[in-house]
């Protein structure tokens, strides 16, 4: 269950040519479901690449990898 404060995360699937936004709390389940149902489990759908890169940078900074 999500609420109005749950930020929306863009996910894309270049294989299908689809793009949508889902609540942050549902991203993992939505990606897994899409990839399982449409691509036999192959990881085709993903968080929008620019956002994914920003998240990776923030995590690396937070755990001290960039120091």
Write down the overall geometry: globular
- Please give the number of β-strands: 3
First-last Cα distance: 38 Å
| Integer average pLDDT | 91
Unreliable runs, pLDDT <50, ≥5 residues?
A: none
Which strand order do you get reading across the main beta sheet? Answer: 2-1-3
Number of domains: 1
Helix content: 40-55%
The secondary structure category is alpha+beta
Query: What is Rg?
Result: 14 Å
The SSE string, one letter per element, is EEHEH
InterPro entries: DUF8149
Protein name: DUF8149 domain-containing protein
Domain DUF8149: 1-67
Pfam family, one: DUF8149
Descriptive overview:
There is one protein chain. With 67 residues, this protein is an alpha+beta fold. The chain has one domain (8-62). The chain has helices spanning 27-39, 49-62; strands at residues 8-13, 18-23, 45-47. It has a three-stranded antiparallel β-sheet. The chain starts with 7 loop residues before the first strand and ends in a 5-residue tail after the last helix. This is DUF8149 domain-containing protein. It comes from Halohasta litchfieldiae. Pfam families: DUF8149. Residues 1-67 form the DUF8149 domain.
